[in-house]
Amino acid sequence: MSNAVSAMHGATWSDGIADIAEAPLQGMITLRADMKDKAVKKAIAAATKVEMPGPGQANGVGDRGLCWMSPDEFLLLCPYDTVAADLARIQTALAKTHALAVNVSDARALFRVSGPAARDVMAKLAPVDLSPAVFQPGMFRRTRLAQVAAAFWMPNADTFQIVCFRSHAQYMFDLLKTAARKGSKVGAF
Amino acid sequence: MLILTCPCCGQTGEETEFHAGGEAHLKRFGPGSSDDDFQGYLFMRENPKGVHFERWRHVYGCGKWFHAARCTMTLEIFGTYPAQTLEPPKDLCDKISGKRPGWSWRTFS
Ligand SMILES: [Zn+2]
Question: Structural domains in chain A?
Answer without folding.
Answer: 12-24+107-179 (3.30.1360.120), 26-106 (3.30.70.1520)
